[in-house]
Structures are given as structure tokens and as C-alpha cells.
TrEMBL record:
Name of protein: Non-canonical purine NTP pyrophosphatase
Family matches, as SUPFAM superfamilies: ITPase-like
Keywords: Hydrolase
InterPro entries per UniProt: ITPase-like_fam, RdgB/HAM1
Family to which the UniProt record says this protein belongs: Belongs to the HAM1 NTPase family.
Superkingdom, natural source: Archaea
Gene3D superfamilies: 3.90.950.10
Chaperone as UniProt keyword: no
EC numbers: 3.6.1.-
Gene Ontology MF terms: hydrolase activity
Length: 209
């Protein structure tokens, strides 16, 4: 059984669209390390979750990347949402920028404790952030690094005034092809979302794993 590590049941339902009943939720509070990129954050979480569960795990990290702000808030999207709020981000973008283009990115990290064959999708083989993130009480350098397979999904759009009652997070202010993510039903959003695109890549690979 593949365990999707999240407290958000909506993410699990989205994963089920691509993985069927092979996936179930694992509510585990892994360490979210600080990094300027999504991949090492997701990779560290996958390693920690696999060591905790002893089962194949899937961890995702996602963010909103605004072109005119050099990708900010990016990996800090959840923190910015919690501290400033989504509407404050929209006001900042529309007040300060003429170019309101942005993209959602999602990185899925898979770990089952085994090695991976070479493929176009990247593999993170280094626990380089483990010791710093975990603190001095744990000697991660003595442990064998766990390889983690990474899958990325991206969807381009733009920041607009909030519309729609669905979704969560930045969905009401992110417009794709004329509709915000919050205006789409679950099936429509899953078909075009950054997470859905990453899950599609992962699902095709996982079927051969």
C-alpha cells in the first residue's frame, strides 16, 4: 500500500483519481525544512516519513510562483498565506506589478527504501539537509541515504481578483484558461492542476514499479 503523507483529505481524493485504491492517507507531521526550492523539502519529508512508516510513501510540496517577484512566495507560500493572507498577496501583486503572470508548481517525492533505475525524472540520493534540519541530537550522517524519486507538475496562469467558492489556499486568485481554480469543480481542477500533472507522471511510472 502506498501512503500519501498529508493532513489534507482533499489531496488524497485527488491522488485516488490517478492511483485508485492503491493509495491511503498517512497523517504524519514530518519536518518541513527551509529551502529555496520545492524538491529538497519534499525529498526530506519523504525520507523522514518512510523511516517512520516503513512503507512506500508519497510526499508533496507545492507553491505559487509569481513571475514578477522572481518566484516569490514559492516554497514559502503556506507561511505567507498564514501570515499575510491570500488577499494581501493579490493586492501586492496587482499594485506592484504590470505582469501578473504566475504558476503553481508541485513536486511529488516517492520513497520506498529501494534504489531507482535511471530515467528522465530526477532522483535525489543525498540526505544533505538531514543533519541540519534534525538538529544535533541525531547523527544522520551515519545512516545510509535513502534515494527519493521526484515528479514535478506545473500550470501557468495569472493572478486576478478572487472568484469562486471551491478549492483552498490561493485557488480563488489563480486564473487558468479563463476560470480560477476556485470556480472549477474537483474533476476540472484535477485535470489541469499542478498536483494532477505531477500525479499523472507518477502514476504512469508507479504502475511499472
Amino acid at each position: 500500500m502506498l501512503r500519501y503523507v498529508t493532513t489534507n483529505a482533499g489531496k488524497v481524493r485527488e491522488a485516488e483519481e490517478y492511483l485508485g485504491d492503491e493509495v491511503s492517507q498517512l497523517d504524519f507531521d514530518y519536518t518541513e525544512v527551509q529551502a529555496s526550492d520545492l524538491a529538497p523539502i519534499a525529498a526530506y519529508g519523504a525520507r523522514e516519513a518512510h523511516r517512520h512508516a516503513g512503507e512506500p510513501v508519497l510526499v508533496d510540496d507545492a507553491g505559487l510562483f509569481v513571475d514578477g517577484f522572481d518566484g516569490f512566495p514559492g516554497p514559502y507560500s503556506a507561511y505567507v498565506e498564514d501570515t499575510l493572507g491570500v488577499e494581501a498577496v493579490r493586492r501586492l501583486v496587482t499594485r506592484e506589478l504590470d505582469d501578473v503572470r504566475a504558476e503553481f508548481r508541485c513536486v511529488l517525492a516517492y520513497c520506498d527504501g529501494e534504489a531507482f533505475d535511471a530515467s528522465p525524472d530526477p532522483v535525489d540520493r543525498d540526505d544533505r539537509v538531514a543533519a541540519a534540519a534534525a538538529g544535533a541530537e541525531r547523527d544522520d550522517e551515519e545512516r545510509e541515504p535513502l534515494p527519493v524519486k521526484l515528479f514535478e507538475g506545473v500550470v501557468r496562469g495569472r493572478i486576478v481578483e478572487a472568484r469562486g467558492d471551491g478549492g483552498f489556499g490561493y485557488d480563488p486568485i489563480f486564473e487558468y484558461d479563463g476560470a480560477t481554480f476556485a470556480e472549477m469543480d474537483a474533476a476540472e481542477k484535477n485535470g489541469v492542476s499542478h498536483r494532477g500533472r505531477a500525479l499523472e507522471k507518477f502514476g504512469e511510472w508507479f504502475a511499472e514499479r
